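sry for the spam today, last one i promise. struct tokens for design, 78 residues
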């Protein structure tokens, strides 16, 4: 899957990933390959990414929006 995390003034992340976990109003949810299309509002919290090398990264966000479609994930983060 291809992931882009974009903040108002710069790009935080861009690359191929195996897993993305994002904060939402009920806790968090994970996105894996072939996830159903979704648009959701994100709450304040951490975005967890596991890339194709197995490396885990975390990004703190104050909220935002996520769109998942055809194994492409775009996060517009605050």
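last one done:
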């Amino acid at each position: 899957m291809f992931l882009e995390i974009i903040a108002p003034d710069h790009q935080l992340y861009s690359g191929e990933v195996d897993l993305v976990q994002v904060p939402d109003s009920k806790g968090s949810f994970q996105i894996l390959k072939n996830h159903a299309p979704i648009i959701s509002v994100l709450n304040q919290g951490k975005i967890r990414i596991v890339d194709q090398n197995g490396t885990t990264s975390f990004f703190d966000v104050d909220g935002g929006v996520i769109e998942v479609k055809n194994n492409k994930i775009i996060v517009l983060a605050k």
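The domain at 2-77 is CATH 2.60.15.10 (ATP Synthase; domain 1). ok im logging off now
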